[in-house]
Amino acid sequence: MRAARPAEAGDDYALTPVPRAARHSWVSVAVQRFGQVSSFQQFMVGAVLGYSMTFRDAFLAITFGSVLLECVTIALGIAGVREGLSTSVLARWAGFGHKGSAAVGLLISLSLAGWFGVQNGVFAEGMHGLAGWAPAWAWAIAGGAAVTVIALYGFQAMARTAWLTVPAFLALAGYAIVDTLRDHSLRELVTAPPPGPAMSLAAGTTLVAGAFVLGAIMTPDMTRFNRSSADVVKQTLISVTLGEYVIGLTAVLLGHAARSPDVVGIITSSSGLLGTFVLATAIVKINDWNLYSSSLGLVNSAEVLLGRRLGRRGVTLVLGAVGTLLSAVGIAGHFTGFLTTLGVLAPPVAGVLIAEYFVVRECRPVFDRARAEGVLPETSAPWLPLSLVCWAAGWAAGTWVEPGIPAVNSLLAAFVLYAAAGLALARRTGADGRTRPVRPRRTEPGPVNAGPVNAGPD
User: Fold this and answer.
1) Apex CA 358: angle with CA 353 and CA 361, to 5°?
2) Which residues of 325-347 are buried (b: 16+ CB within 10 A; e: fewer)?
3) Contact between residue 81 and residue 365 where contact means Cβ atoms under 8 Å apart
């Protein structure tokens, strides 16, 4: 077992397991997860629900969406903390194969880099609307540069940012709801019909789940810094539940009271410059993780497809610069439709990963041997066709099956199909007395259990 090399630590272990000595307390990780869930995007989703649904139906939509998110987040989070690997690297063995993981990495990288640019543009327009002395492109450059620097320095810098931005955002939420609702009866808001066009419960649940499904899939990027599976469960239940219910239901009430889904207008009218600034910090908190996970996905894809090991910091700098430029020239927002379409491909990835790791479990002996020996797992097969078939089937179910919730249909279709076919193939292989070929070990194993279990900064 070897110690972590400085280059690996500086790269936040982008392609190697996070050693035990580099793990963090669950509170440090939970604050960042809460920062993701209690973001500007969640406030916007809640306001849309409040504008188009009764409080009861909005509560049910948030509940159904949250349960789905928590199940996916906990399952993928446990895989991440056990193996210490990011989502795209984990996919090499958990269902997709060596080259198949490159497709997962590219999906994550393109989606999150795109949303980084879109949300940076929202930040720029909001600041320009309130502080007209600087053009929107200048705010875009300032915001993009700030987030890029935070993501550049990795997990610890993002943790410190979360300790500042999350309390600030909670203070804003408290102030906004008191200011907006003080002239309204809470009972009337809870029982009132929606002020806007009605939205179905299925559509509302899809909106809740779809808004954070990419965040759920990139969970291993974050939980590989946890110390135990129990920590993953605790932080998920607390952060997702509080984020979805506290922030989501607050925004529902604001949408009812203001009779508008325009959360930016609601916030800025309540608290002016301070409100806009704190709202901007909420965007920063989710955007640093967008950029960070995007860089991890691209680093994995580059190594798999090009055979080159790129530095995570260099990739972060390039992605941040491109996203910032697109938002500065005002075209990042035009990619929203494409990014939404691309996001439909995300739920089946989670279905395959969870089915392989927890049901089929063909990858588990390989992971267990690697963890015991302190090395990276054995090189996986280049392609696993079953995962590609299940990925396509999940996408088709989410796109064309009308009953139910598209995100749930997509994930469940991929999960059930992969689990059933994978178990059948495993039984047939065992009955024939044949095993899948084991490829040679990698020549540069990564650290897994280096250092004491409870070491590491908080």
Assistant:
1) 90
2) bbbbeeebeebeeebeebbbbbb
3) no
DSSP H helices in 182-262 = 186-191, 201-217, 219-223, 229-242, 248-258
Spatial neighbors of 347 by CB under 8 A, at least 6 apart, are 213, 217, 394, 398, 407, 408, 410, 411, 414
Rg of the chain over all Cα atoms, to the nearest angstrom: 22
**Nearest by Cα to 92 from 453, 296, 392, 353:** 353
DSSP string, 400-420: H--SS-HHHHHHHHHHHHHHH
Tokens 């097969």 locate to 381
- Cα 307 to Cα 98: distance, rounded to the nearest angstrom: 12
Diameter of the chain by CA atoms? 74
Give which of 294, 292, 305 is closest to 92, Cα–Cα: 305
293: its two tokens: 């996970």
**What structural domains does the chain harbor?**
24-346 (1.10.4160.10)
Residue 386, C-beta contacts closer than 8 angstroms, at least 6 positions apart: 418, 421, 422, 425
In angstroms, the CA 267 to CA 434 distance is: 63
Q: Coil, strand, or helix at residue 344?
A: coil
pLDDT tens digits for 83-114?
A: 999 999 999 999 999 999 999 999 999 999 98
Report which of 81, 119, 107, 50 is spatially closest to residue 228, judged by C-alpha positions: 81
- Give the helix ranges, DSSP H, for 86-154: 87-90, 100-130, 136-152
pLDDT tens digits, 243-274: 788 888 888 888 888 787 776 666 666 666 66
